[in-house]
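[job 0417] fold request received: histidine kinase
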Amino acid sequence: MDDLEWIDRLINKDARKRDSKDSGEFAGMSLSHNNSECFEQFREIFLNLAHEINNPLLIISGRAQMADLNKTDSTIVEENIKIILSQCSRIHGLMKKLLFFSSALKHNVVIKNINEIIDSSLKNVEGMIKVAGVDVRRDYGVNLPAIQLDEFQIKELFSNLFINAVEAMPQSGVLGISTRRERTVIRVEIRCTGEGFACVNF
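[job 0417] inference complete; emitting structure tokens
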């Protein structure tokens, strides 16, 4: 089974349970109220998680040792770095699936300033931004009111948008982010100089 397929299967299984329930009983995805079934579901998650994270970690460790032993051979080092990065992407994909699953179980609704949320999301991809040589230009509205939002979901949204923007500018560029208030709405605009990335407004 693919390393992410079991999470999709678990999410879809719970989604079907949710749809079969009365719509007024559940606002989102839920685990069974039956304790034994709930235990088995979490047991399945943890067992698969341990297995799927351990495998790429072993590969990363082995490849790092190979690169260290052959540090004078740039070809071997580059080859091992590529494999290490691919395994990191594999773990990242796994974590995104799990975070989506956990966020569906419990919403983290808070009241926060959108500028703070954006800054926090940028911090998550700071390494990518520096490596790509991207210049981040902020044009934040002042005295914006705090708004009610799901902190995990909105940070995940911004992080994904920033990652896509940086990937569209591998040889440097400009990432522009602006916020402003329009009557009762807080508007966020994200632009970049990379190809294939359209301006995003919401």
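[job 0417] notes: The CA atoms of residues 54 and 127 lie 24 Å apart. The radius of gyration is 21 Å.
[job 0417] exit 0
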